[in-house]
Amino acid sequence: MEEPVKCDFGEQTSLWMSLSLDGLLEIDDQRQLQQHLAVCPVCQSEWQAMQQVSVLLESAEMVGPPLGFATRVERRLAVKTQRKKQAFGGLAVLTSSLSLAGVTIGAVVLIALGVLIWQWIGPQGASALSQVAAGVGLVGKGATFFLWELLVRYGPPLLVVVGIGLAVLVGIWTWLFVNRPGNTRRNGYA
């Protein structure tokens, strides 16, 4: 069985043939293509096949889209945009609610822990603290004492938890900003 004949310039010649059919081949390259086709039977058969396909494509009737196609596409895009706006609004409300809830829960927990620690200190600690707090204000000194103790005991884990929470919120808000309705930076459509 014979091996198929290959042309050493097949890729370059195929490129020239394609450009020639499109009318984009330079004059010098056109001359080299004609010289090569005169001596290479493999490329001659490829050239004839490409010419036949080109004739078929040129003679084919151009068909437009079906009636109402543009209207259907526009409706689908409008529905998609409306859903995206609804989702964006829902996520914005959800994250803002979670942020507000987190701050509220944090304040309530802080107050409750302050009261528990105040009761845990007992009457001796309370009288000493109340004397110190008299000059500045009981609430301010109590909060300062409580926060100082809280940070001394649980500072690093508390900072990690707060940092993770803030990072999640920043990530969600960044995602919402980038994917907001009407943002044209993601693609060229709208």
Task: Give an account of the 3D structure.
This protein has 190 residues and is mostly helical. It folds into 2 domains: 10-59, no CATH class; 79-178, no CATH class. It is built from 5 helices and no strands. The chain has helices at 10-21, 27-39, 41-59, 69-136, 138-178. Helix 1 runs parallel beside helix 3 and helix 2 (27-39) crosses helix 3 (41-59). The longest helix has 68 residues, at 69-136. It is elongated. The mean pLDDT is 76.
Task: Give me the number of helical elements.
Answer: 5
Q: How would you sum up the major sheet?
A: none
The beta-strand count equals: 0
Supply the number of structural domains: 2
Compressed to H and E, one letter per element, the order equals HHHHH
Give the radius of gyration. 38 Å
Structural category:
mainly alpha
Helix content: over 70%
What portion of residues belong to β-strands?
under 5%
Summarize the structure.
This protein has 190 residues and is mainly α.
Which descriptors apply to this entry?
mainly alpha, 5 helices, elongated
SSE layout and pairings?
Elements: H1 10-21, H2 27-39, H3 41-59, H4 69-136, H5 138-178
Helix pairs in contact: 1-2, 1-3, 2-3, 4-5
